[in-house]
Amino acid sequence: MSMKERNVAGCIERPELLPDCDVPASRRKPDEVIETSLVRLADETQADNWRTGGLRACQVRGGAALAAASFMVQTPGPFHEGLQRIAPELSADAYRPSYTYAEYTVGLCYIAGTKGLPPELRLRAAAELVARGDEMGYAEARNLLPRSGWGLLTHAVREGWAVWTAQLFAEDETVPLRTRMKVGLALAEHDRPAGYVPEAVEKLVAHPDATSADRLALASAVAQRAPKESVGLLCRLASDPLVQPSHRMQAIELLDEVDAAKSQEMRALQTRLPTVRAARDQHREAAERAEHEVVAQRARETPEAVLERLDSEIQGILDGLDGRGSADWLATDLDNHLAETDWAAVAEDVAEICGLVRDEDIESALRSLEVLTRIRYGDDSSLLPDGSEPVTPDDDDFPRLTRQELAEHARDQAQRSWTFWGGLVEKHGWDTDRIHEVDDQWHEVNRHVSGVILQKAADHLRNLQQCLVWEIWPALVKAAKERNYGSAWGHLATARLLTDEAEHSEALWKETTAEDYSFDPMTMSWPRDVWLALEAWRRG
What we know:
Blueprint: H1 32-42, H2 48-61, H3 63-74, H4 80-86, H5 101-113, H6 119-144, H7 153-159, H8 163-171, H9 177-189, H10 199-205, H11 212-225, H12 231-238, H13 245-256, H14 260-269, H15 276-300, H16 303-324, H17 334-339, H18 343-358, H19 360-377, H20 403-428, H21 434-481, H22 485-512, H23 528-539
Helix pairs in contact: 1-2, 1-3, 2-3, 3-5, 5-6, 6-8, 7-9, 8-9, 8-10, 9-11, 11-12, 11-13, 12-13, 13-14, 16-19, 18-22, 20-21, 21-22, 21-23
């Protein structure tokens, strides 16, 4: 039986595995031979040789079957003496078990789920399952025992066993309320360490759908056994407008014997409570609202609604990716800050670009898209479209700039400027002071080269920002929209290479403002008169 199969006694799913037991649910039931043997062993109407034959079959099979037989022999009850006589070798004081913990658990399942065994014996096996597995053991027991099998639970509590099972049963919303109230009353009457009131009893006393007489009976039982611990329960009854006025007064009278101050407080409260009918109407309206919410929740869980939410979630992530890398806001003032040579502002712009690309939220968004896409469209939905290949990170996808390139560009610009000046001298002749003219030209060339280099470094930063917001980031978003996540990850890796280049270029741009790009014109070839003028300028 799978976890999806339900028991007619309730709507609790059967656990596939139990604590410290790796036997699946489908194998936690005896075969026909063992089932017959267990029933025969417990049948007091059978002759001893027939019952002994059933025991021998379990011993030969061993494992869970032997564990089940051992539990039957060792468990107290009206059948105990007869089983001890049939199998004295399995008595608790003389038997050393030859089965594992998991096999014993499976043996308990055999007994709890075998029709034909005494109801008390099956309930004792169920209680042992609960003691071993708590909620999971309880779920297993609820699926193995029929509805009638739980009727002995009140008797078991009064005898002092199956108390923990009874508490879980009393809290089980799948159990009819009147049955829970009967078990709760047995729990309330059970003699246990002073000062302890089971949580299940507290919940039942406060249950709005239970009759006020049943609720009062529970609180009264606790008051008789543990007066001080019953104050809260009695106050809850006395202050609940759903409880009949006569029952509220009885609760107050019980309070008189325990806490006179609380009793007077509850008496004064009675005049301010709404009528029972008004309280019932309010409770009914609240129940209807809760039912409507359940219906709405079910509507939200329909396949169509789930697909709609998935589509909305996927689109929201895509819109977030698209917006974060938009040219409308990402480092939009970089051009102005470069023109103003504002170091701090440019550094903030570059940090904004790097922060976007390196943000872990971007990776999380792509991973979420992959998972949601597989859920929405199937496991093969993230495969590459036909004819496409994943994008691999490549630093050729964006411009690069090095110090060497800047130095070469500075030299080229200086040579070009000096060559142009030499042409003017050759065409128009010298001024009256040749040395002064060379000196002016030297300063002019240096200013021009510094400006050109600064502009080149600034243009490179602008190009990187434009490449990111107009090429790489849109390509990443487009690949994500097409569910081509291999390419999307490749574009993200390329964008991160670009941010490394942006930080490097920012450092170059700052260096150009302080770097000396002066050029020695005497490294060039000149006519004789110009060469002499340059030598004189250098000596001067």
